[in-house]
Design goal:
Blueprint (H helix, E strand, L loop, with lengths): L1 H21 L3 H4 L2 H12 L2 E2 L14 H22 L6 H12 L7 E2 L3 H20 L1 H10 L12
Antiparallel strand pairs: 1-2
Length: 156
């Protein structure tokens, strides 16, 4: 009985993992930083302002912040009318707009409702498209991203 229950749980976990992996847009999957950002939105319900996750260690946050400041509100304004829930989402979307206007001074943004979660995922997808169109951003990120373990550092 116990083994059957464990097998069922394992199967459900694997199916959920497979389904979530399939839902990642192709352009997001192309870059390690956007994969991690997208995963944080989908799995942790956070739109990150700081790159503190292990998968983001070493990546520069400046290009992400710059993108949010210059394109964030436009992306929100494009996406929100498609998914607007009357009366429920206005305040949260307004807070999301405040977040993108100055992400460096904000804490991570909670995407606990479906509207902000979808908009946050769209922000990450648009950032991935921006990186894809501007190869130098991804190249600089990879170049500046050093090893994150002591074995690769030149320390005795």
């Amino acid at each position: 009985m116990r083994n059957t229950f464990r097998s069922i749980l394992f199967f459900m976990f694997m199916a959920a993992s497979h389904a979530s992996a399939q839902n990642i847009p192709e352009v997001v999957d192309k870059f390690q930083d956007t994969r991690a950002l997208y995963s944080s939105v989908q799995n942790m319900q956070l739109l990150l302002s700081k790159f503190e996750l292990k998968d983001l260690r070493g990546f520069r946050v400046d290009p992400w912040h710059s993108f949010l400041k210059t394109r964030g509100e436009d992306v929100i304004n494009e996406e929100w009318p498609k998914i607007r829930i009357p009366g429920k989402s206005y305040g949260k979307v307004r807070m999301l707009k405040q977040f993108v206007s100055n992400p460096a001074s904000q804490d991570n943004f909670m995407t606990t409702d479906p509207v902000t979660k979808r908009i946050a995922a769209r922000l990450v997808e648009e950032y991935a498209k921006h990186q894809n169109a501007n190869d130098h951003i991804a190249a600089v990120n990879e170049h500046l991203r050093g090893p994150d373990d002591a074995a690769h550092l030149l320390i005795d």
